[in-house]
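stage 2 :: seqdesign
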């Protein structure tokens, strides 16, 4: 479901409360908390979202361990809304025409710009353990625990989007059937990591992502 008059909500300019949770010789952790609000769901006309906003608290615990080459993130979302998607966005400032995705048996390369006949405004793809962008000098991989949907946004910045929650009330191609539990209502905790790497360390970085 993508309404004709869709609207994107972002935490980019929200006031986040950042708290130091732990600082020791082996690790440092911060909690980033945001009290947000999202539309309650879709309207019956299937063209717009509800004007009524439900509270949505998001807390992320960000941890960097001594000697680690990646940043660990644990995000908890108290989801009280329906028919929407929650994504974590990363801007790597990497110019490239293709994305890399961990597949079942190989590393899959896909063009960021889809086939000219592709009319869907989104171009979501799938990965197993991680997806990445890279140029001749460096790269950035995003690894998710059980998070298999990603998209490279065509926004001029190659923003990397990792889907945390995709909340839908029904599914179907040859027939439609209800999926009320897929609205993911309640508290959900997601785990992922950000792995920057130099081109020479590509294989090691992908092993760390796994």
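stage 2 :: out
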């Amino acid at each position: 479901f993508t309404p004709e008059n869709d609207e994107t909500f972002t935490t980019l300019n929200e006031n986040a409360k950042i708290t130091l949770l732990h600082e020791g010789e082996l690790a440092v952790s911060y909690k980033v908390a945001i009290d947000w609000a999202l539309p309650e769901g879709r309207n019956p006309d299937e063209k717009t979202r509800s004007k009524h906003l439900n509270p949505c608290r998001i807390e992320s615990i960000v941890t960097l361990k001594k000697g680690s080459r990646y940043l660990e993130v644990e995000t908890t979302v108290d989801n009280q809304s329906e028919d929407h998607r929650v994504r974590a966005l990363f801007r790597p400032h990497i110019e490239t025409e293709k994305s890399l995705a961990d597949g079942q048996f190989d590393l899959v390369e896909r063009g960021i710009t889809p086939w000219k006949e592709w009319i869907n405004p989104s171009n979501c793809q799938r990965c197993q353990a991680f997806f990445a962008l890279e140029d001749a000098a460096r790269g950035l991989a995003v690894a998710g625990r059980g998070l298999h949907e990603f998209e490279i946004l065509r926004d001029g910045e190659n923003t990397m989007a990792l889907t945390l929650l995709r909340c839908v009330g029904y599914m179907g191609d040859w027939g439609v059937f209800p999926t009320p539990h897929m609205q993911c209502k309640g508290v959900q905790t997601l785990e992922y990591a950000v792995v920057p790497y130099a081109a020479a360390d590509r294989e090691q970085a992908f092993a760390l992502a796994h």
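stage 3 :: structure notes
- The chain is about 5% helix and 50% strand.
- The two ends are 32 Å apart (CA to CA).
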